[in-house]
From TrEMBL:
Family statement: Belongs to the bacterial solute-binding protein 8 family.
UniProtKB keywords: Signal, Transport
Domain Fe/B12 periplasmic-binding: 76-347
Top-level taxonomic group: Bacteria
Protein name: ABC transporter substrate-binding protein
Transport as UniProt keyword: yes
Subcellular location: Cell envelope
Keyword Transport: yes
Organism in which the protein naturally occurs: Kineococcus endophyticus
Gene3D superfamilies: Nitrogenase molybdenum iron protein domain
Pfam families tied to this protein: Peripla_BP_2
Signal peptide positions on this chain: 1-31
InterPro entries registered for this protein in UniProt: ABC_transptr_periplasmic_BD (IPR002491), Bact_iron-sidero_bind (IPR051313), TAT_signal (IPR006311)
Length: 360
């Protein structure tokens, strides 16, 4: 098993959900559970302040491979999944190791979460050639978190021989299962289930407030696409696949795209001859680098889409694209802060047809 490749450069084989300035006022509310004590390198990750564990240890966490007993408040947490560091940091737990997905950000922590490191420098693992079991063992973890790690039973058994390991809830997809389920699962593992519930509630409330502030979004048709074609195909997201960040705001997704997906839960694969299928009231392209917009618009008939011609297409910057793909409470807060004004401009037909550079 290997990690899903970068969503901007090739097609994730699994569901790649809302995959990228600190996260301002809403982020502050989400972080109300308190910041973690910062440690450098592979020092212990110690909960601090009001964000400390509230559940009684030992505790038992049920997951797809059975149950894991966490005997005591974990102080050395290793992340073997792609995004769990966001949830841990917001809960006040600095992991001693994270795992790189894409982007090569320092410590595999993106801008919306950097402020929660507090100067700590987690070691960065890789899944590109499978789990780095020797490195993980050398870190002497007392908890391994892998809710977004694509683990199979054999890998789980190898990890749990090193330390108590918590994976996704039963019935989850291997990668990028429901963000709220993952948040609550990570929170349970570190004894902060109430704080996990609070994070989920804050995000749901933020969606509701944003939708209420923008009634013009309701009922508008939207398409979400990756920012460049890959091997002659553009990967576009059918309803229910990475689209919550639009549907929760009142948009309805362009219908019929699921018929172009290899299987349920995957992106539609759109050739240059069928780019007309993307046209909608608003089209969001997750562009990630300078020059991507021109390369994208030269693919098929994208440049002639009504949405492009009429100023109703949005082109993200790299961090905003990553936040859309990451799908954690922290990244969703960043998306709502930075994407919402772009969506409002697009609905009004005033979106500049170039990459939007977010400011902190």
């Amino acid at each position: 098993m290997t990690t899903p490749p970068s969503p901007g450069r090739s097609a994730p084989t699994r569901r790649t959900v809302l995959s990228l300035a600190a996260a301002a006022s809403a982020s502050t509310a989400l972080a109300a559970c308190g910041n973690a004590e910062s440690q450098s390198g592979a020092e212990a990750s110690v909960p601090a302040g009001s964000g400390g564990a509230t559940d009684a240890f030992p505790l038992t966490v049920a997951h797809q491979f059975g149950e894991t007993v966490v005997p005591a408040k974990p102080r050395r947490v290793v992340v073997v999944g792609l995004t769990e560091q966001d949830v841990l940091l917001e809960l006040g737990v600095v992991p001693v190791a994270t795992t790189e997905w894409y982007g090569e950000r320092p410590h595999a922590v993106w801008p919306w979460a950097e402020h929660l490191l507090g100067g700590a420098e987690p070691e960065v693992l890789s899944q590109s050639d499978g789990l780095q079991l020797e490195r993980i063992a050398a870190l002497a973890p007392d908890l391994i978190v892998g809710t977004n790690a694509g683990l199979d039973r054999e890998q789980y058994d190898k990890l749990t021989a090193i330390a108590p390991t918590v994976t996704s809830i039963a019935g989850s997809e291997k990668y990028f299962s429901n963000w709220a389920d993952q948040t609550r699962q990570v929170a349970r593992a570190v004894g902060r289930s109430a704080a996990g519930d609070a994070l989920v509630a804050e995000v749901e409330d933020a969606y509701a407030r944003t939708a209420a502030a923008h009634p013009e979004f309701a009922g508008k048709q939207a398409t979400f696409s990756q920012g460049e074609p890959y091997e002659g195909v553009l990967y576009v997201y059918p309803d229910g696949v990475n689209t919550d960040f639009l549907t929760e705001l009142g948009f309805r997704m362009t219908p019929g795209l699921e018929t172009w997906a290899a299987e349920a839960g995957q992106q539609a694969q759109i050739s240059a001859e069928r780019t007309d299928l993307l046209d909608a009231d608003v089209v969001v392209f997750a562009t990630e680098e300078e020059g991507a917009v021109d390369r994208l618009l030269d693919f098929g008939t994208l440049r002639s889409l009504d949405a492009v011609q009429q100023g109703r297409a949005v082109f993200t910057d790299p961090v905003l694209a990553g936040a859309i793909y990451f799908l954690t409470p922290l990244s969703t807060t960043y998306v709502l802060e930075h994407l919402t004004p772009l969506l409002a401009e697009a609905v009004a037909g005033r979106s500049p047809q170039e990459m939007a550079i977010a400011t902190a």
